[in-house]
Amino acid sequence: MFELPATLPRTGIGEEAALDQLGAAAMARAADLAAPDVLAHMDPPSASVAAQMAYLVAQANQNMLHPATSPFATLAEERVLEWIAPAFGMAWGQFCSGSTLANLTALWAAREAGARTVVASAEAHVSVPKAARILGMGYHPVPVGEDGRLIRSALPDLAAAALVLTAGTTGRGAIDELAPLAAKWLHVDAAWAGPLHLTAYAERLAGIEAADSIAISAHKWFFQPKGAALALFRDIDAKASITFTSSYLARPNSGVEGTRSAAALPLLATLLAWGRDGLAERIERCMAIAEELAQRLEADPRTVLRQWPETGVLNWRPAATDSAGVIAALEGTSSAFTIGETVWVRQVAANPHAEVDAIWARISAALG
Ligand SMILES: Cc1ncc(COP(=O)(O)O)c(C=O)c1O
Fold first, then answer.
1. How far is the CA of 343 from the centre of ligand 1 (A)?
2. 32-55 pLDDT per residue, tens
């Protein structure tokens, strides 16, 4: 096995040897996210066309901060945002390196618009309280019901609040009721389930158009290499509040990040290659895998299904024991999520190449 030197080597081994040794080790010791029996986290395999485009992007190494050095990439970024933002009722948007930053960017705009606290469900992603802390805003978690959705009757006064609703919670994929509320700012964290809005399941995200801002991770259900997300905004005026200028900048710098890669190009390549239908087909395949597994888990006396996988996130447990042994046996293809006192096996249908029989064989083996 390839041993990494413990300290920075004084003399290099050469580029070919470095790539041979490191490349082989990195690939051999990485989970195969596209394997037929893998249904683990919110991490899809990247689209091959996107991975290849990302290699070209790395080679060109353009900086989106400087449009003169990245004229086509700048156009491509604008175009892909023009394709996606209106499908969610939004006027504009920007790329971020993940939804952690997309949530922070959106809540920054909310604060600039006068929001003083962030209100979100107790099952909101950790990036939401983190953003509130960074922005010096109060944070008010609201309990969720049995279905994992924020309990609306438990909401505080929202006149000076940024309300964050989640479309596809991290632990169990629940979609908070998206009907608008009279908040100072309404942000929808659709990091996981946002792309469902472009599929036959679009109705599940009905109401998302009323948001002031939306976060979507492109490295989740848009099948992009890591480091791509979208922060979308309904009102163009929000842009000025999160934009800075400087004499060394040819164009104003909007959002949290400075130097950014041309992450829009792999997404554009994917959407050009697959079209909206091809994207929808892959997500719908993931949903069908989750649904068929849910049916098997529900029907099998050895297992208990926690709730129907509304956005492809499965929570289940063995009927006779606690989940620990099964989670250990399913290493690499499951994680855990605790609801109340109970630990549930969590499996996320992010892999369109998964096969239900292959996953069921692993589950059956894990159950013993
Ligand atoms: C609901 C939700 N919001 C935000 C995030 C953070 O996104 P990222 O990992 O792209 O920073 C996640 C990640 O899993 C998530 O599930």
1. 21
2. 999 999 998 999 999 999 999 999
Domain residues for 110?
A: 48-273
Cα 66 → chain centroid = 27
Mean pLDDT of the chain: 96
- CA dist 266 and 46 (Å) reads 10
Fill in the DSSP letter of residue 327: H
Q: Best mutation site among 96, 107, 121, 125 for ligand 1, i.e. most ligand atoms within 8 A of its Cβ? A: 125
Q: How many angstroms separate the first and last alpha carbons of the chain?
A: 32
Spell out the alpha helix ranges (H) of 61-137. Answer: 71-84, 99-112, 127-134
Q: How many structural domains does the chain have?
A: 2
Rounded distance between C-alpha atoms, residue 208 and residue 210, angstroms: 5
* Separation of CA 191 and ligand 1 centre (Å): 5
| Pocket lining: 170 vs ligand 1, CB cutoff 6 Å | yes
Instruction: Please count the other Cβ atoms lying within 10 Å of the Cβ belonging to residue 246.
Output: 7
> Are 94 and 163 in the same domain?
yes
197 and 330 together in one domain: no
- 117-121 and 161-166: which strand pairing? parallel
- Spatial CB neighbours of 246, under 8 Å, sequence gap ≥ 6: 253
Q: At 309, which CATH number?
A: 3.90.1150.10
Q: Are residues 264 and 297 in the same domain?
A: no
Helix (H) or strand (E) holding 342, with range, is strand 342-348
Task: Compute the distance between CA of residue 52 and CA of residue 294 in angstroms, rounded to an integer.
Answer: 34
Instruction: Point out the domain boundary residue: 231, 251, 273.
Output: 273
The pTM of the full predicted model, rounded to 2 decimals, is: 0.97
